[in-house]
Amino acid sequence: MAKPTVVLLPVWGAGHFMPMIEAGKRLLRGSGGALSVTVLLMPAPTPEAAVDIAAQVKREEASGADDISFRHLPAVDIPTVHTGIEEWVSLILRSHGPHVRAAIAGLDCPVAALVTDIFCTPALDVAAELGVPSYVYFTSGAVMLELLLYSPVLDEEVPGEFSEMDGALNIPGLPPVPPSVLPATMLHKKKMSTYRWFLETGRCYMKATGFIVNTAAELEQSVIDAIADGRCTRGVPAPTVYAIGPVIALTPPPEQPHECVRWLDAQPPASVLLVCFGSKGLLPPPKVREIAAALERSEHRFLWVLRGPPKDSRPGQRVPTDAMLDELLPEGFLDKTKGRGLVWPTRAPQKDILAHAAVGGFVTHCGWNSILESLWFGVPMLPWPLDNEQHANAFLLVSVLGVAVPLRLDRERDNFVEAAELERAVSTLLGGGDGEAGRKAREKAVAVKAACRKAVEKGGSSDAAFQRLAEEIRRGAVNVPKKRN
Ligand SMILES: O=c1ccn([C@@H]2O[C@H](COP(=O)(O)OP(=O)(O)O[C@H]3O[C@H](CO)[C@@H](O)[C@H](O)[C@H]3O)[C@@H](O)[C@H]2O)c(=O)[nH]1
User: Within 10 A of 13 (CB to CB), how many other CB atoms are there?
Assistant: First the structure.
C-alpha cells in the first residue's frame, strides 16, 4: 500500500513557502521513509509570484526528493479588492475549501496530517470534516502565536482602541508589552474587518491538533509555557506547541561565490553592517535618504541591499537601475563610501552573507526568517520593523533575548528613523558608541547562536519536539473516505 502522506498547504511568499517546504523535507527525513509529502499549491497572487513558484517547484523536483509531489489547486476568481494578504488568503481559501477537500480525498494513500500555513485557517475545518489531524505550521515565532491566541482575551480586557492606549499590556510569559509593538492588525480600529480577522484567526487556531513553530524552546520558553498551560486561552488547554526550529534551508555555498560574498572576503572580521529589509523590502525615498546619511556619517563598513522604492511609486520597476540608484541616493554617496560600502541593487544571498565572518551587525525588518538566520550565525541586530508582527519580534530581540540594540523609530510616521538615531545605534552595535550596550548584544548573540545549534542537535529540545511530532503524525494516518470527495 502507498505510504501515508503529509499534505502541506503553504501560501506564497519567501518567508512562508520555503520554510514550510523545508519543514516538510525534515518530516520526510525524520520518518525514515515511512511518509511522503504532498504539497498543494494555491494559485499565485501575481504573475511574478507564479514565475517564482514555478522556479521553486522545479528546483525541488530536480533535487530528486521522490517522496515530495506538488499539485496545483485550480484557479479561483481572485478578488481584486481586499485589505491585505490575510483577507486575500482567507477569501481564496473559502472559495478553495472544496478544492482542498477534493485534493485530499482524491489521494490514493492514507493521509497522516494536513499542515497549513498560518493564514490558512479555513483548511482546519476541511481537516476536521475529513477526520485528518491538522497542524498550523507557524512561520513566525511563539510570541506571534501567543498574541493571536490571546487576542480575544485582550480585546475584552482593553475596552478602547489599542492604538490609543497608554501604559503597558500584561501578556503571560512576557515583560510588560508596550501596545505600540502589537502586530499592525491589532492596532487597526476594532470595528475594522482586519482587526476582527485577527481575533477570529486566534479562535480558529484552537481547532488544530497542534502548532509546529519555527522557534526553539531556548528562544521563547516562557511564552511556550504560557500557551501550554492555557494562561492565554482562559485556562482552556491550547493545541500542543512543537518548537522544532530554527528550521533554516541551508544549502552549500555555490562554487562561484556571489559578488557580495567576494566583497566581504576583503573586509576585516565583524566589521560590516548588513542592511537588508527582507523579501519585500522596497523602501520609500525618504527612508533611503536617512539610511544613506547615517551610513555616510558613521564611517563603518556596510553592505546595503537596496531594492528600490515601493512598487506602487514606479509601476513595473522593482530592481533599481544605476540611474535609479543615482536618483535615490544622495549626490556623491557612492563615491564617498567607495571601498568601505557596497550597495547591492537586487536580491542578495542573505544567509551566505550572514554566515560570513566579516559581518558584525544586521539592520533587519525583523521578518522571522531573517531573525532566525541572524541568530543562527550569531550576528547581533538593529531591529527596524516595518509591518505585520515585526514590532513584536523586535521587542523579543531587545527585551527578552538581549541580542539587539534598540532603534528609536516613529511608528506614526510609517516607522521613520532619523539618520542621527541610526548612526548612534550603528556605532553602538559595531563598537565605538555606547560600548556596554553593544558589547552585551554581541555577547548575547554568540550565546544564542550556541543555544540554537544545540536545540536542533540530536537530543536537543527542538530535535526532541520534532521526534514527538513525527511519531504523532506517523500514528495519526487515516484513510480518507472517498465518498466525502
Ligand atoms: O535580498 C534578500 C532578501 C531576503 N532574502 C531571504 O528572504 C527571506 C525573508 O524572510 P523574512 O525575513 O521572514 O521576511 P518576509 O519575507 O518579509 O517575511 C514575512 O513572513 C515572515 C514569516 O511569517 C514574517 O515574520 C514577516 O513579518 C513577513 O513579512 C529570508 O530567508 C532571507 O534570507 C534573501 O535571501 N535575500
Answer: 20
**pLDDT band, very low/low/confident/very high, at 316 (cuts 50, 70, 90):** very low
- Looking at the predicted structure, is the pLDDT value of residue 484 above 60? no
pTM value is 0.92
- Ligand 1 atom 34, closest CA: 350
Residues lining ligand 1, Cβ inside 6 A: 13-16, 139-140, 276, 278-280, 305, 347-351, 367-370, 373, 388-390
The superfamily CATH assigns to domain 5-249+455-476 is Glycogen Phosphorylase B; (3.40.50.2000)
Distance CA 132, CA 137 (A): 15
> At residue 460, does pLDDT exceed 90?
yes
pLDDT at 110 exceeding the cut of 60: yes
CB of 469 closer than 8 Å to CB of 244: yes
- The residue type found at 117 is D
Task: Give the full edge-to-edge strand order of the sheet including 272-276.
Answer: 341-344, 301-305, 272-276, 359-364, 381-383
In CATH terms, the fold of domain 259-310+317-452 is Rossmann fold (3.40.50)
Give the three cell numbers for residue 219. 528562544
Q: CA 21 to CA 112: how far, in whole Å?
A: 16
pLDDT of 318 above 60:
no
| pLDDT band at residue 347 using 50, 70 and 90 as cut-offs | confident
The stretch 417-445 carries a mean pLDDT of: 91
Catalytic site residue from 16, 96, 356, 365: 16
Longest Cα separation, the chain: 70
Burial of 374 per CB tally in 10 Å (0-12, 13-18, 19+): buried
- If you measure from the C-alpha of residue 10 to the centroid of ligand 1, how many angstroms do you get, rounded to a whole number? 15
- For residue 185, which of 170, 201, 207 has the smallest C-alpha distance? 201
16 carries an active-site annotation = yes
Least confidently predicted of 230-244, 339-353, 426-440: 426-440
Distance of CA 323 to the CA centre of its chain: 32
Numbered ranges of CATH 3.40.50.2000 in the chain: 5-249+455-476, 259-310+317-452
